[in-house]
C-alpha cells in the first residue's frame, strides 16, 4: 500500500518540499497541495524512473553537502586570487584523468558536478564506458595529488551514500 | 534593524558583488576557453550565493518573514552551473582538433565519450546500469 502510494519516496519528499518553498507558505492549503503533488508527480513519471538510486546514510549526505559548501567557498577565494594576481598564461593548466570506483550513474553525475564547483577543477568529459572522468585543472603542479584529493574527499563519501 | 545586522547584509552584498566581478573578469582575462570556464563556474556561484543570503537576512529582518525562494535559487544554480560548464567543455573538445590531441588517455579500453563516433563500444558487465 505504502509502496504503491509512494513509488519513489525521496522524489515525493523533494517535490513536496520544493512546492512549499516555492509557495513560501505553510498554510494547510499549501501543505495539502504539496502532499498531492508529492503523491501525483512520482506516480505520473514512474515510467521514467525504472530503478531508483539506492540512497543510504542520510548523515553522510549532510556531511557531503557541508564539505562541498566549504570547498565552494575555498575554491572561490583561490580562483579569485589566481584571476586577479596571476598572468593568464603563467597558470599551469592541464587535463587529468580520474579513474572512477563508483558505478552508479547518479553518483558519477554528482561527482562530476561537485568537481566543477570545487577548487580549480572543471569536469569536462566521461569515458565511454563510464569508468574515468576527464577533469581540467586551472593551476596544478601535482596532478596525482589532485586526483587523490578528489577520490578521498568526494568519491569515498559518494561511494558510501550510493552503495 | 540593528546596525550590526545592517553591516552584515552590506558586507554580504559587497562580497557577492566582488566575486561576481572576479568571475566575469576571469572570463575576459584568461587566455583560452578551458581556463575561462573556471571563472564563471566558481566565482559567480559564491557571488550569487552571498547576495542571496543577504536577501534572506534582509527579508527576515525587515518583514519578519523567512523567505525560502533564495534557497531554491541557490539549489537550482548549483544543479545547473556544472551542467552548462560540462556541455561547453564537451562542445569545445569536439570542435577543437588541437585540444582533442592534448587530452590524456582514459586509462580504459574505451575513449572519451564525446569523441566516440558512431556506435558506442560494448559496456563491460557491471560497470554502469543500462
Of all protein chain pairs, which has the greatest interface, and how many residues does each chain bring to it? A-B, 46 and 59 residues
**Element pattern of chain B in H and E:** HHHH
- What is the helix/strand order of chain A? HHHHEHEEH
Kindly state the percentage of residues in helix of chain B. 55-70%
Number of strands of chain A: 3
The low-confidence runs of chain A, each spanning 5 or more residues with pLDDT under 50, are none
Strand residue content of chain B: under 5%
Distance between the termini of chain B: 56 Å
The average pLDDT score of chain B comes to 81
Helix run count of chain B: 4
- Helix-strand category of chain B: mainly alpha
How would the global form of chain B be characterised? elongated
Strand content of chain A: 5-15%
Oligomer: heterodimer
Question: Distance between termini of chain A?
Answer: 26 Å
Based on CA atoms alone, the radius of gyration of chain A comes out at: 20 Å
Q: Which topology of the largest domain in chain A does CATH recognise?
A: Alpha-Beta Plaits
CATH class category name of the largest domain in chain A: Alpha Beta
Radius of gyration of chain B: 21 Å
| Domain count of chain B | 1
How many domains of chain A? The number is 2
Amino acid at each position: 500500500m505504502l509502496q504503491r502510494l509512494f513509488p519513489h519516496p525521496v522524489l515525493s519528499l523533494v517535490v513536496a518540499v520544493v512546492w512549499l518553498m516555492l509557495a513560501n507558505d505553510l498554510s494547510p492549503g499549501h501543505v495539502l497541495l504539496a502532499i498531492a503533488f508529492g503523491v501525483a508527480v512520482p506516480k505520473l513519471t514512474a515510467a521514467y524512473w525504472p530503478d531508483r538510486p539506492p540512497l543510504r546514510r542520510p548523515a553522510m549526505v549532510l556531511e557531503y553537502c557541508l564539505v562541498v559548501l566549504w570547498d565552494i567557498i575555498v575554491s572561490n577565494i583561490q580562483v579569485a586570487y589566481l584571476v586577479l594576481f596571476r598572468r593568464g598564461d603563467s597558470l599551469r593548466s592541464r587535463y587529468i584523468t580520474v579513474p572512477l570506483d563508483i558505478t552508479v550513474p547518479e553518483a558519477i553525475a554528482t561527482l562530476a558536478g561537485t568537481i566543477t564547483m570545487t577548487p580549480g577543477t572543471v569536469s569536462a568529459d566521461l569515458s565511454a564506458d563510464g569508468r574515468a572522468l576527464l577533469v581540467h585543472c586551472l593551476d596544478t603542479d601535482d596532478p596525482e595529488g589532485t586526483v587523490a584529493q578528489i577520490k578521498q574527499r568526494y568519491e569515498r563519501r559518494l561511494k558510501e551514500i550510493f552503495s | 534593524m540593528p546596525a550590526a545586522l545592517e553591516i552584515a547584509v552590506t558586507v554580504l552584498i559587497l562580497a557577492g558583488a566582488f566575486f561576481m566581478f572576479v568571475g566575469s573578469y576571469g572570463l575576459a582575462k584568461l587566455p583560452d576557453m578551458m581556463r575561462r570556464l573556471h571563472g564563471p563556474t566558481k566565482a559567480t556561484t559564491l557571488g550569487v550565493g552571498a547576495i542571496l543570503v543577504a536577501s534572506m537576512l534582509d527579508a527576515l529582518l525587515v518583514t519578519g518573514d523567512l523567505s525560502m525562494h533564495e534557497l531554491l535559487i541557490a539549489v537550482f544554480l548549483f544543479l545547473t552551473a556544472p551542467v552548462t560548464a560540462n556541455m561547453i567543455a564537451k562542445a569545445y573538445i569536439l570542435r577543437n582538433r588541437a585540444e582533442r590531441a592534448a587530452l590524456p588517455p582514459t586509462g580504459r579500453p574505451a575513449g572519451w565519450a564525446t569523441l566516440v563516433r558512431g556506435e558506442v563500444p560494448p559496456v563491460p558487465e557491471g560497470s554502469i546500469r543500462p
